[in-house]
Predict the 3D structure of the following.
Amino acid sequence: MRPGIVQTALASLKIRKRGANPMLDAAEDRIIQCGDGVRLRGSYSRNPDNRALFIFLHGWEGSQDSTYVVSCGRHMYERGASVFRLNYRDHGDSHDLNEGLFYSTLFNEVFDAVREAARLADGAPVYIVGFSLGGNFALRVGRALRDMSVPGLAKIYAISPVVDPWGAAPLIDVNPLYRRYFRKKWSASLRRKQAAHPHLYDFSDILRHRRVLGMTAELLPRYSEFERMEDYFNSYRLDPDDLLRCPVPIEIITAADDGMIPERDIRRLNLPSHSRLIVLAHGGHNGFFQSLLGPTWYDEHIAGQVFGSDQEGTS
């Protein structure tokens, strides 16, 4: 299980979601009204103990039901935490909610949704956990806290976060497994968007491309403000000093063998004294498995920090 590609594949293994899950039993569908009339769908599971509120941000083409979100959410719910799992625009069952397409640059609506979700905490401490692109969003929330606030926010966790999208994006096409996975997911998402808004979109030419970057290069000038991919990817990059003024602690967890996120990108970030970077030798992308079905290293590590569990992982 040690190779990074194996760890990465296990992160989405659906068998991990089998069995009793009290978090899913308690889940309520929520529609959050964001700025500019945008609506985002999420799922809220209130725990009777309400020891904390965890807000989960999934990766690109993931959803509130992604295996890594459901598994980590269950781990926290079973320890007394309430859980809010957010879908970005056009992720999960939400393609009909907004006419506009999802872009990773749409930070304001994600921040609005996080802030509204945090109000559900009822005085409990709030924790954000973001994976991959969700880690990027989580770190951008941290950057925004220089000027804005999220009520009750105690800490931000970023797992395998995208830091330099222009450097990371080509790696998806380099590995055939990654390319097939993301192209299949994104193609299905675009078809659903076109079906929901046929008067606005025709992706037939875009869907003929065999590479993710080819699809991106075709879509951006036609349906976005960006003519060049480089400009688009750089628009949601995190620069080295972006997090220095973040008032809440940040913890970044990544692996040296992550095939999608170069370790050097993350090490460029300068963190404030109350924050830290953890780079494990193994773990792949969103993996960090210690056994086949989990819990993962970060499940136990985060639970140990928040709840004082004696099962905290060690680095």
Residues 183 and 212 are 6 Å apart (CA to CA). The chain is about 35% helix and 15% strand. The chain has two domains: 4-164+238-307, 176-236. The longest helix spans residues 176-196.
